[in-house]
DNA sequence: GTCTATAGAATGATAGAC
DNA sequence: GTCTATCATTCTATAGAC
């Protein structure tokens, strides 16, 4: 392994491009959505950037996947319900620090509604994976009356996505606080420890 | 009033264009988002259509406002909490019959995040108005523990918007059912009549 | 009031030099 | 592997005839 050659180099450079793109979009926002914008940001010409990606759409999906990969580390393997809750809130809190990524994500999510869009499969997989993770904890949430677990996880997911739209219109919207309020109202267990 | 002349005619035609555009987008979906697409749909040339609207963005905002106007009639003045609930669910149910409008709305909602976008003011007003309406009923919803009314209405709004994203990815998502489940879980009053 | 024609700008993608 | 140059397309907006 680690053989000298074009392939390994190409892959490494590709990853480097994605990380750099994420940094820039997170910090400076996501204005144009054009390949040129990203190319400038990562220090390549437009053609130079497209050397690593077949198309604009493939590039953006790759950026989102890279973000998931990095965020996945941040969340970690959730054990208890409280840990899952905290992890979820931590991701939301982190999102308030990367407005450009929130915008990119939301924009792609809408465009992915078209089954022919390259991001369609990505978002279906991603949503399903998130719901599966939430579902593992849903049984421990006791609502009155008891709620269908599938509805419960879709609601949590919808609130997270929908609040982002509100937050993009008004940065004063306190996403973590509101999601925490939802959890409290849904989970009517006895007061938790601490 | 009803004077013969260009002004009244222009306004009437403008309204007709908007209604026609809504019908077509609702029925055939919203593919291109271009002025030309709408122009073809309403039976005008691109230049002919832009005779009535200053710009593309103004046109799309006008379409969304027209939709609100027509939907407003559908909801009616809400009296009781149950009526409000039913009205809210009725709008959501209706949305499942106009996928093109859902897509147009979502797309514009994301783009409106930019304060310079012409739809920015529209969405801020619209969101605020909807929350004010919900707020009038929020006090009657008794959650355990009691929830901040502002959080409550933002959650309901977020679920409605977020579920649309899920529904666009998978038309099998039962939006009215899930929102009803949310209402049931939030409002832990005694079982309602009937 | 509506059309044709076109300006003018932006974009994604590709060809080909180095 | 990266660049410059260019192509082909698309889109908004406007000018001007009728």
Describe this structure in words.
Two copies of one chain form a homodimer. Chain A has 194 residues and is mainly alpha-helical. Chain A has one domain (56-193). The first copy, chain A, is 71% helix and 0% strand. Chain A has helices spanning 6-28, 35-42, 46-50, 56-75, 81-95, 99-111, 119-138, 149-169, 175-186. In chain A, α1 crosses α2 (35-42), α1 (6-28) packs across α6 (99-111) and α6 crosses α8 (149-169). Chain A is elongated, with a radius of gyration of 19 Å. The termini of chain A are far apart. The mean pLDDT of chain A is 90. At the A-B interface, α6, α7, α8 and α9 of A face α6, α7, α8 and α9 of B. The structure holds a DNA duplex (18 and 18 nucleotides).
List the helices and strands and how they pair.
Two copies of one chain form a homodimer.
Chain A: H1 6-28, H2 35-42, H3 46-50, H4 56-75, H5 81-95, H6 99-111, H7 119-138, H8 149-169, H9 175-186
Helix pairs in contact in A: 1-2, 1-4, 1-6, 5-9, 6-8, 7-8
Chain A binds a DNA duplex (18 and 18 nucleotides) through residues 6, 9-10, 13, 32, 34-36, 44-48, 50-52, 55-56.
């Amino acid at each position: 392994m680690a053989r000298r050659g074009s392939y390994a180099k190409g892959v490494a450079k590709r990853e480097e491009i994605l990380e750099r793109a994420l940094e820039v979009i997170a910090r400076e926002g996501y204005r144009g959505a054009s390949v040129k914008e990203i190319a400038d940001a990562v220090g390549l010409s437009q053609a130079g950037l497209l050397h690593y990606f077949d198309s604009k759409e493939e590039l953006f999906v790759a950026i989102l996947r890279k973000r998931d990969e990095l965020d996945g580390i941040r969340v970690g393997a959730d054990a208890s319900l409280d840990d899952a809750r905290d992890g979820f809130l931590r991701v939301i809190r982190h999102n308030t620090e990367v407005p450009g990524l929130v915008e990119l994500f939301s924009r792609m999510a809408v465009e992915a509604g078209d089954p022919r869009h390259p991001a369609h499969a990505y978002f279906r997989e991603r949503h399903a994976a998130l719901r599966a993770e939430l579902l593992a904890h849903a049984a421990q949430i006791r609502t009155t009356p008891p709620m269908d677990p599938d509805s419960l996880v879709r609601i949590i997911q919808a609130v997270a996505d929908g609040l982002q739209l509100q937050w993009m219109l008004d940065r004063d919207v306190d996403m973590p606080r509101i999601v925490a309020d939802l959890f409290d109202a849904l989970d009517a267990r006895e007061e938790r420890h601490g």
